[in-house]
Design goal:
The chain has 437 residues and is α/β, with parallel strands linked by helices. The protein has two domains: 165 residues, Rossmann fold, CATH 3.40.50; 224 residues, 3-Layer(aba) Sandwich (Rossmann fold). It is built from 17 helices and 15 strands. The chain has a seven-stranded mixed beta sheet with strand order 1-4-5-15-10-11-14, sandwiched between helices. Strands 8-7-6-9 form a four-stranded parallel beta sheet, sandwiched between helices. The longest helix has 20 residues. The mean pLDDT is 94.
């Protein structure tokens, strides 16, 4: 008797050799970044804190961009390719008919527990090649800071991380992980930058935000010799690097002899969902497939649901150029949530363009997170592992859609991205669900 596997795996040789750039297939050119009406040129400032290689990718209109062999070797070191899994036990728990099938991509299996390593390895590789000795960045939930710390260590670079203060305080385990990789980690707002000190003067107990931490990371890079800034989401080159997820997934659905009709991901700035769905969206734009896309957000930061499609800064201090994106305001005071990684005011320009052209739908769940984590708990008890608090939003939306299809008698193949693991998020699950802590 042969046991049938519910996992669909690629060999190392089958891992993508190129990243996919959806800019080549958008219905109209992606609106370019621009300078604000007043103040120093932000566009002229970009080469002072962003990598040359990434800036070239940022403005590229080429459909395919080669993945350097050195980065592919780093991807293999980090455990790529990663499996696509048919969620048979969850399907059974939800009592779904065979006409409704669930699949999830396991980006939680990276060394640091999230998809973020895909661009961290690329950016630190380029930083080392361009002669830098140190990288600096921000982090929200801590997944990006962990990934960059790891990638910097593999590329013999120093690393400095500005971490949103509220998450810094309640995730000592992830802070230790960054320290073990050799990174210096600061609660943001911090005393390390002029911008951070200014905010602390106004409110010494400020809980911080991703926009503030981005501003600190940029200022730090501008003022430190041999240091370059790396960003974990939003920008075109970041989403480009993440398309390794979707390109793998596309081939794995072929192995499963199935085709997704709906792809779902959690959404803050857009990097994990972008990486997962952009290759599929490109084929939709090319007329090669039919598929829908759903971003799952929090009402604490519903940029795609309530934001306006406008030019706005990507950081709190307004140090970045203006980007055309769905935004609820770069200086908005966003309420705190446990899924800190999706608490961000603006949506990536690529994802915003898809939303603007009607190819991307979005839903926002209550900010108390009780419902989201209750649904995620159903997944945990069926599939047997714990997704990140952010990834729980994708899990929740997938369960909701599957049950909606069941109620309406619809067929559907739903794919969702488990962008990270939740092993270091225990307090974030326990308190909303009323569990002992």
């Amino acid at each position: 008797m042969t046991t049938k596997s519910n996992q669909f795996n690629l060999t190392v040789d089958e891992m993508p050799h190129r990243w996919y750039n959806i800019v080549a297939d958008l219905p109209e050119p992606l609106p370019p970044p621009k300078d604000p009406d007043e103040g120093e040129s932000r566009l002229e400032m970009l080469p002072r804190f962003l990598l040359k290689s990434c800036l070239q990718q940022e403005t590229s209109t080429d459909r395919w961009i080669d993945i350097p062999e050195g980065i592919r070797e780093l991807y293999i070191q980090a455990g790529r390719p990663r499996p696509l899994v048919r969620a048979l036990r969850l399907e059974k728990a939800l009592d779904l008919p065979s006409t409704i099938r669930l699949y999830y991509k396991r980006e939680d299996l990276s060394p640091t527990g999230s998809h973020k390593v895909n661009t961290a390895l690329a950016q630190t590789y380029y930083a080392q090649k361009e002669g830098y000795s140190e990288v600096t960045t921000e982090t929200g939930a801590g997944q990006w800071g962990s990934a960059l710390s790891y990638a910097a260590a593999l590329n013999n670079l120093k690393c400095r991380v500005f971490w949103v203060r509220s998450a810094y305080r309640w995730k000592p385990g992830r802070r230790t992980m960054m320290n073990l990789y050799g990174a210096d980690v600061f609660p943001s707002p911090s005393k390390e930058t002029e911008f951070g000190r200014k905010i602390l003067e106004q409110d010494p107990e400020h809980s911080g935000s991703l926009g503030i931490a981005i501003s600190e990371g940029i200022e730090d890079a501008l003022n430190r010799e041999g240091t370059i800034y790396c960003l974990g989401s939003v920008l075109n080159h970041v989403l480009l690097h993440q398309t390794v997820i979707g390109l793998e997934t596309m081939e794995q659905f072929k192995l499963a002899e199935d085709e997704p009709t709906l792809l779902i991901g959690c959404f803050g700035g857009g990097s994990n969902f972008g990486g997962f769905m952009l290759p599929f969206a490109g084929q939709v734009l090319q007329g090669k497939r039919e598929c829908s896309f759903l971003a799952s957000q929090s009402q604490a930061a519903p940029n795609l649901v309530e934001g306006k499609y406008k030019y706005d800064h990507g950081d709190h201090a307004g140090m970045t150029p203006l980007l055309k994106m769905y935004s609820i305001g770069h200086d908005s005071d966003l309420p705190g949530i446990w899924a800190e990684g999706i608490r961000y005011a603006g949506a990536a320009p690529k994802m915003s363009a898809l939303r603007h052209h009607g190819l991307l739908d979005a839903v926002a769940y209550p900010a108390d997170e009780v419902y989201v984590f209750t649904q995620a708990r159903r997944f945990m008890q069926a599939e047997g592992f714990i997704p990140a608090s952010e990834s729980s939003y994708a899990v929740c939306a997938a369960i909701d859609k599957a049950l909606e299809f069941k109620q309406k008698g619809k067929e559907g193949v739903i794919g969702f991205n488990v962008s990270g693991h939740g092993f270091l998020d225990m307090e974030g699950f326990a308190k909303p669900l009323g569990l002992e802590w």
